[in-house]
Design a protein that fits this description.
Layout lengths: L3 H12 L10 E5 L5 E2 L7 E5 L4 H32 L1
Parallel strand pairs: 1-3
Antiparallel strand pairs: 1-2
Length: 86
């Protein structure tokens, strides 16, 4: 005989097979500085912060990678210089 708690849980899981309820939500977009892009929707909405296009992200990541490589190269050169001077 199944425990009543397990039976109740199985019943809840079986009701999940129903089709999902459609929700017509809206999206409010903001800049990273907090400025609203467009108009604020009425009613419930999802808040999204827009951090730029894929091209902007790619350019920023390439610049960051180049900077990190340069900084690492400078550090290695300094360490080698310190080793030879010691």
């Amino acid at each position: 005989m199944a425990c009543p708690a397990i039976a109740a849980r199985l019943k809840r899981l079986e009701t999940r097979n129903r089709p999902p309820v459609r929700v017509h939500g809206s999206v409010a977009r903001f800049t990273p500085q907090g400025q609203l892009i467009g108009t604020m929707p009425k009613g419930p909405c999802m808040i999204v912060t827009d951090h730029g296009s894929d091209d902007e992200w790619q350019a920023a990541l390439l610049a960051q990678q180049a900077r990190l490589i340069n900084e690492a190269s400078e550090t290695i050169a300094e360490e080698e210089g310190n080793r030879h001077n010691a």
